[in-house]
Amino acid sequence: MRSSYRSGMALGALWMAAVLLPAPAGPFDGLVPVAAAAPVGLPAPRAGETDRRERLARILIAADARSRRPAAGEESPADPGPYGVVDADVGRTRGEKAGLEGRLAKARSDLHGMAEASIRSGHCTPVDLDGLQGETEGDQGSAGTPAVSSGGWTRPLLSYELTARFGSAGGRWSNGHTGQDFAVPIGTPVRAVGAGTVASIGCGGPFGISMVLRHDSGWYSQYAHLSAPIVPQGRRVRAGEWIGLSGTTGNSTGPHLHLEIRRTAEFGSAVDPVGWLRARGVDL
């Protein structure tokens, strides 16, 4: 079954973001402005910047989780409407909704700014979200837990829209598109498609912040244009485990995940991810 990401965000998610994210009086503390970002080779971000990045990540993950869960006591309609789930408070004005949406957009923009600053500094370090996946999935129940096939494979995201496909032609790719793109907002949790080990984490270049997993079967998967990794190089991960946050770093025209399935760890060995996963019991 194909899952799709609807534009916008549930009001419940927006309200949660408003509670967690105070209205800014100016630039967020600890954010390195694009114009003032440190060049490659300078020290890693200060503790305050790291804490701020973690807080932004938690806000966006909470909003993503809330977007799939109806308000307490309400049933999901056949057509969830423009926000994807039941409106938690129909009495709120459009102005209030717009304000909440704007602050959520600000959080995404600032997380992206910090991702770009980390690339320029050469320090694409994991964001510490220890224990958050278990808490989030526990709150959501089955809606927050991906199905894993009998062979041990799963989707890299819970909600998304498939965009550029493997082999697509275009000016952005010299020899055709080498993966499958999934349109999702910045800060969406990205999951390992199968059990394996983090072989490498990329910090810059066309793929921006990226990660390659080495799977037990000998295949490799790559996740590109992230806003942050969650797990470090060398870490053992399970199918469906959070490994990074989606973004739009590198050669990207908008927020999305670029997924590759490779025969080796290196670029140039990719196969069609959609067909490969389908053959292993996972439909995108």
From TrEMBL:
Pfam families tied to this protein: Peptidase_M23
Signal sequence range: 1-25
Upper lineage: Bacteria, Bacillati, Actinomycetota, Actinomycetes, Kitasatosporales
One annotated GO molecular function: metalloendopeptidase activity
Protein name (record): M23 family metallopeptidase
Coiled coil start-end: none
Residue ranges of the region described as Disordered: 66-89, 131-150
Gene3D superfamilies per the UniProt record, alphabetical: Glucose Permease (Domain IIA)
Domain (M23ase beta-sheet core): residue spans on this chain: 176-273
Keyword annotations from UniProtKB, A to Z: Signal
PANTHER family documented for this protein: MUREIN HYDROLASE ACTIVATOR ENVC (PTHR21666:SF270), PEPTIDASE-RELATED (PTHR21666)
Alphabetized InterPro entries for the sequence: Cell_wall_metabolism_enzyme, Dup_hybrid_motif, M23ase_b-sheet_dom
Domain of life: Bacteria
